[in-house]
Each structure stands twice: as C-alpha cells, then as structure tokens.
Amino acid sequence: MSPGLDDEALSEVVGFVLILALVMAAISLYITYVVPAQGREDEIQKMTQVRDWFVNYKTQVDTLWMNSPPHVPSPFDTLSPSYHYPRSQDASSMDALSWLYTNQTELFDITSGGTTLSQVLDPATGSGTTPARMFIPILAPIRSSARVGLPEYGENFTITTNSTSDYANVSLRGLEFQSQNNYWIQQTYTYQDGGVFLVQNATSGNADISVLAYPAISIVNATTSPEVNLMLVNMAGTTEGAIGTSSPVMVRTWLNDPPDYVIANKTFTSVTLTAHTRSAPYAQMWVDTFNNAVRSGLANSTATLPGPLATIINTTDARITIDAPQDSSVNLTVSQADYIAHLQNVQSMME
C-alpha cells in the first residue's frame, strides 16, 4: 500500500476517534448537568403534587365528620337538635284533610352512610416510558420513590384539666409520606389529628417546618371566659408500617364511628393541651399550631388570653396552658372522630 493511502486511512481513524470523543464529551456534560437539573425539576413538581394531594385529602376527610352527628344541622328546620315532631294525616275524612299533632318525638340518626374515600397517591417521578428511558436509561433522571404508610411512633395528644387529670389521651398516628428524592431535598408530609404538616431535612440540624393546614383547634377569649374547642382525629390503619414504593398507592379512608363529644362544654379553672411528639421538629410544629389557634382566636378581640403561649417541654413535647381569669372559668368542648385507613399498592398502568 502506498504511503498516501496509509495516511488517508490513518486520518479517517483519527477523525472517527475525535468524533467519538466529542460525542462522549457531550454525553458526559449532558449527564453531569442536564440530567440532574431535569431530575430536580421533576422532583420539585412531584413534591408540589404531593402537597396538594395532602391538603385535598384533609378537606375530604374533614367532610366525613362535619356531615355526621353531632355536627349536622337539625332536620326539617327544627330548633331542637335532631328532633322532629311528626304530623299524622286523619284518614277518617277523605273530603277534608286535617292534621293530628302527636306528643311523640322522632329521632333522626344521620350518619356518613358508610362513605369511603378512595384516593391514589403516586410517589414516583418519571412515570411513563420515554425514548431516553427505553433505549438509553443513563440519559434519563433516576426515578424517585417514597415510603407511604401509617407508622406508629408512640405520639399522643393529652388534655389535662385543673392541673390534675388527663381528660383525653388520643394517639397522633396519621398518614405519612417520606420522600426518597435523588436530586432535591427530602420532605415528609404528614396528615395528623386533622392537620397537614411538612418537615424538610428532618435528619439535619436545621429542619424546615411548615403547617400547611391547621387542625380543628380554637382558643377564643369570649366575653366572660376563654373557650377551647377541639376535634381530635384518631386514625387506625389496616396496613402496619410503611410501604416503600415507586408505584401508586391506593388510600381508602372511612369513618369508623360517628363523631361524639368527649367533653361537652364543661368548665375548668385551667386547661392544658400537650402534644407528645417523636422529635424536636414535630414539637415545634405543634407549638406553631397552638400559637396560631391563640392568634386566630384573638384576631378580633382587644383582650389578652390568660396564660403563656405554647412552649416546648422536654425537647419533644409541645404544651399550652389556658388559665381562667379571676372569678371565671375555661369552657372546654372536645369532639373525637375515629377513622380507619387502608393502604395498598396499585400497579401503575404507565410502567
């Protein structure tokens, strides 16, 4: 072979190697910068969807106890709760109708009708099949996953009256979503006692805490005495622990029993609310919850509420005490709703 042909063949090889090097460099830059940015954007969007899902879940779960006794309106425009005086038609005279009023009362038991809320929570990013994911998986972001469950951390909510006895002791077990993101900060969403809470970077020393929707707690300084009203939400689960998953999870929730009054407008010299939580960030969440109830209750009042604002006790307990003014009392009303939730993996149709 002549030297000219040898040089031409060598130049073709060198050109091919250079082109291959440029392609590999472009792929390397794409993997280094574009894929993480795309993955971060996907996870931010997914966390926004999860946030909206939990707020919507709280709204729908609240409707179950709000539309059940003793919270439903009185039927037939009566003033007596749940009672109606029926009228009987006199059949002895067919040409003239008259009404006979009985002295009996009829109780209408209005329940939630066994309504079950069914919602699907998809914890993963990158659902669906894209060309990059099919043929060159390395060019697509790694799919995130999450742990969804009803974990039992031993948290509970207590109500102490007159500084001596616990009037109510309810578990704070709730629905929890723990992200397992690959490109974005870790977030934990919790539906607990009727509220929606968000903790970011819970394992770090600088956890970011947010209350997305407050529980049904009101602390109002009425005309003559403070009033404390609470709806305690107790949630049990048929799925123990958590589901580590990247596929959708079906969450079915129903009201176990109609809500009932635990304490119906009783008076005390003092009322103490305590949330016993798993860690300091969650205690701070409940401090914010209690203080928000105080601020909301005093928004249209020039009076001051007796007692200090909420504080953290023993690192993991959030507590607030409402003391009665002199020659007065604290009016306390507590309702409780018991729910059952069932979690089940659902095979994604997009996978």
Describe the protein.
The protein is of the alpha+beta class and 351 residues long. It has two domains: 3-72 and 116-345, no CATH class; 77-109, no CATH class. The chain has three helices and 20 strands. It has helices at 3-66, 131-135, 280-297, and strands at 83-84, 87-89, 99-101, 106-107, 116-121, 145-149, 156-161, 165-171, 175-180, 187-192, 195-200, 208-213, 217-221, 226-237, 242-245, 249-268, 270-276, 311-313, 317-323, 330-345. The strands form five sheets. It has a six-stranded antiparallel beta sheet, sandwiched between helices. Strands 5-16-20-14-13 form a five-stranded mixed beta sheet. The longest helix has 64 residues, at 3-66. The chain is elongated. Mean pLDDT is 77; it is low at 72-113 and 299-304.
Taken together, the total number of domains comes to 2
Approximate helicity band: 10-25%
Helix/strand class: alpha+beta
**Principal-axes shape call:** elongated
Indicate the radius of gyration in whole angstroms: 30 Å
Order of helices and strands: HEEEEEHEEEEEEEEEEEEHEEE
Output the strand order for the largest sheet. Answer: 12-11-10-9-6-15
Distance between the termini: 56 Å
* pLDDT averaged residue by residue: 77
Low-confidence runs of at least 5 consecutive residues: 72-113, 299-304
Topology, number of strands: 20
**Helical stretch count?**
3
Main sheet record: 6 strands, antiparallel
Portion of residues in beta strands equals 35-45%
Transmembrane segments: 13-35
Keywords: Membrane, Transmembrane, Transmembrane helix
